[in-house]
Task: structure prediction
Amino acid sequence: MGHPHAIQGQIQSSPVAVDSIIYIGSLDYNLYAIDARTGKEKWHYYMADNPAYSTPAYREGMLYYGTYGFHNPRVYALNTKGEKQWAFRRELESIKPDEGFRIGSWDNEKYGFTASPVIAGNRMYIGSWDNHLYIFDLDRGELIGKYAAPKAIGAAAAVGNGVVYFGCYDGSIYALSGE
Result:
């Protein structure tokens, strides 16, 4: 058995392993980087008041993940040193490094991301409790679209042969062109 590392909060997120580093989100509002060989924490990134339910996705030295919370849920991009590169908030016209992607709803609650992001090429897809699948261009660092579903999307999508598949709380599986 390896070297365990105690984290203050409960863990809902699955770990992602890259080059002997384990990345994992916690309900204590942090994303952690743990050295898999020693069990020692390399860094953690505090996400204000937003717990990480989703599993981070990794692409070319970057980690992407969504947060859930009633206080400004966001989608973050961090490098492997734990430095925020950008975050998204819906009402922004352009991306600002210190701001995030905020989701509003019909009942004035702010529903967040429990679905894990999935990456295909330069696109990232992530479902939300506000009944949308969000689509990001990772090369440009921006939101490029969203698909309205009848109910919340709580689980990760899958991508195959240019098609994005996801389920939602209405009991249906949806297939969208990845273009």
